[in-house]
Write a structure and sequence with these properties.
Blueprint: H1 3-36, E1 66-73, H2 78-90, E2 95-102, H3 107-115, E3 124-128, H4 142-145, H5 158-161, E4 167-171, E5 175-177, H6 181-185, E6 195-199, H7 228-231, E7 242-250, H8 251-256, H9 259-273, H10 286-292, E8 298-299, H11 314-317, H12 320-325, E9 328-330, H13 345-349
Parallel strand pairs: 1-2, 1-4, 2-3, 6-8
Antiparallel strand pairs: 4-7, 5-9, 6-7
Amino acid sequence: MSLRRVNVVILVLLAVAFLIIVQRNLLNLNDFLISENPDAVPGMLLPFESEFSPELRPDLVRTGEKIPVVITAAEERLGAVVAAMNSVYQNSKANIVFNIVTMNDTVDHLKVWMSKTQLNNVKHKIIIFEPQLLNGKITKDPQKLESVKPLTFARFYMPVFIPDAEKAIYLDDDIIVQGDIQELFDTSLKSGHAAAFSDDCDSASAKGIVRGAGNQNNYIGFLDFKKEAIKKLGMRANTCSFNPGVIVANLTEWKRQNITNQLEHWMELNAQEDLYSKTLAESITTPPLLIVFYKHHSSIDPMWHVRHLGATGAGNRYSPQFVKAAKLLHWNGHYKPWSRTSSFTEVWDKWYIQDPMRKFHPVRKHAGDK
């Protein structure tokens, strides 16, 4: 064998050895990532996180304690999350970091929207939600499946998406913040409580109510108390419910109590036994939260979650003075502030930033409309 052939054989062997070493290192890295993320759900793909917003202007960089805010971005509601983030950011000097959970096919649109507006100067991460995470946890009934939006369950997985955070805020996209988010973040949670919510029986909204709301406000409106699995829990059907559109979470306590696993258990059981109320009007994410946090959650200042602005007659229910004084407004209900029939759309319009790709268009009444 010539010297040249010997050299070629040696090079080939070295290349094979190098590839084997690389493969082993990658496998070790995967094991390391799994060990470093104990809260990751078995079988779940770890979320992809984009880099923080690049090249922030030095005069716009905010320092101090980070305030992680988790919010979802659905393609058909992208204008909502833009308006919500803009209102949060412009009304505070705090060091806010937005963790935007979205689907893979929405990323490009979201990035363009962020980059072409003043939101490019906001610290943020984009996290991809993997729908297969919900396999076996939601109903297979075609009629009900149509109303299931995967991103609504993102709030269940906050410790997975931001594993280093000890505390975080979750916000629905149909909100506008008018106060300083630092105040909400500073909400005090009782010892052993993993989350704080705004109870549906609180009296704050009543200050601005002109006529009775008639909204669901107790457990029987969300759970079927005739089912044996619900009966065994010993919960009172008339217990005041809460709205999970705004959450202040102690993620350290959340992980310690395995809250995510508990929520998934009730999701799976509901998929098998249909435990939720037949008259359920709100999000299907609410029932498992009501069960897991039954009489074991702290309270948010009611003015930090003034809701039902998306319900019928909200324009007559709340006075303009009350809406102006609210720290956070939530258009939960059928009528959203980017649609023609919603109330107080002028408040939402103040924070909306036009879509540079011209895909999202708020619907507004014209002068000739009745």
